[in-house]
Amino acid sequence: MSEIEFNYQLLSLQNSLNSFALSLTKNVDEASDLVQDTYLKAIIYRDKFDAGTNLKAWTYTIMKNTFINNYRREVRLNAFIDSTDDIYHLNAKSTMEAERPDSSLHAKEIQKSIQSLGEEHRIPFLMHTRGYKYKEIADQMNLSIGTVKSRIFFGRKKLMEILRDYQN
Known about the structure:
Strand content: under 5%
Mean pLDDT: 84
Order of helices and strands: HHHHHHHHHH
Largest sheet: none
Structural class: mainly alpha
CATH class of the largest domain: Mainly Alpha
Shape: elongated
CATH architecture of the largest domain: Orthogonal Bundle
Radius of gyration: 29 Å
Helix content: over 70%
CATH topology of the largest domain: Rna Polymerase Sigma Factor, Chain: A
Number of strands: 0
Oligomer: single chain
Distance between the termini: 65 Å
Number of domains: 2
Low-confidence stretches: none
C-alpha cells in the first residue's frame, strides 16, 4: 500500500475515530486531541501496518492504547507520595480545623447528644464508631446482627435530628 493510499484510507476513518475518541474521553476537546495523537502515531508507525489487514482496527488499537497511557500518566502526575514514616499524615485532616475556637464546643455538644440517646441505641452506636464489626457487637450484646444494624441506624437518625443545626 502506497503512502497516499494509506493516508487516504486513514482520513476516511475520521468520523468513526471522532466518535470512538468521544466515547473514551467524554470531552470534545480531549477527543480532538486524542484523534490528532492517533493520526500522528499512525503516520509515524505506518511501516508497522500490514497491508491487507484491518486499518480501522489498527487505528482503534492505537487510539485505545494512547488513551490508556495518557490516563495512567495523568494518574501518576496527580498521585501524592507520602514520604513520612507514619502514614497517618496522609489521611489526617488539616490541623487548622481542629484549632478553631468553636470546634471544642461542637465536640462537647456532639458528645452530649450521644449521651442523650437511650442505652439501646447509644451502646451499639458507640461500639460501631470505635471500630467494632456488626458481628462483634451482636455477640457482645447477645443480639441479632439485624437488630444491631437497626439500632445503629436509628441512633444515627436521632443524632442527626438532635444536631440538625450543625449540618451544613
